[in-house]
Design goal:
Blueprint lengths: L6 E5 L5 H11 L3 E6 L3 H11 L2 E3 L2 H6 L4 E4 L6 H8 L6 E3 L7 H5 L6
Parallel strand pairs: 1-2, 1-4, 2-3, 4-5
Length: 112
C-alpha cells in the first residue's frame, strides 16, 4: 500500500514564497488542499495553479483538515494570522519575515 500524501494548506500569499513552497511540496508528492488569502482573486489563481480549493477564511482552511499549514502572510498580518491558526491540530510553518518594526514584533507577544 502506498503512503497517503501529506495534505497541505496555505495561509497568506505574500510575495513568491507560497508558489515556491507549493511547487516543492507537490514535487515531493504532497497535496495542496486549501488556500486562504484576504485577496480571494489571488487565492483563486493559486488554487488553479497548484490545486486545492480557495477558501474565504482561516476556519474554512482548517476545516479542510490539513496535515500542515504553510503560512506566508504579509508581515503586518503575520502575528494575527498565526494566532488564528493556533490550536489547528496541524503544525504551522511560517516562511516569511514576521516582523519589520518593533510594533510588529510586539504583536507576537503570547502567540507562541
Amino acid at each position: 500500500m502506498s503512503p497517503q500524501p501529506l495534505r497541505v494548506g496555505f495561509a497568506g500569499l505574500a510575495h513568491s514564497h507560497p508558489a515556491v513552497d507549493a511547487a516543492n511540496v507537490r514535487a515531493r508528492g504532497a497535496e495542496v488542499v486549501a488556500v486562504f488569502d484576504d485577496d480571494m482573486r489571488a487565492a483563486d489563481d493559486f488554487a488553479e495553479r497548484f490545486g486545492g480549493a480557495s477558501v474565504p477564511s482561516v476556519d474554512a482552511l482548517l476545516s479542510s483538515a490539513p496535515d500542515l499549514v504553510i503560512a506566508t502572510p504579509r508581515t503586518d498580518r503575520a502575528a494575527e494570522l498565526v494566532r488564528s491558526l493556533r490550536g489547528a491540530g496541524a503544525p504551522v510553518f511560517v516562511n516569511k519575515v514576521v516582523a519589520a518594526t518593533r510594533r510588529q514584533l510586539a504583536d507576537w507577544t503570547g502567540v507562541l
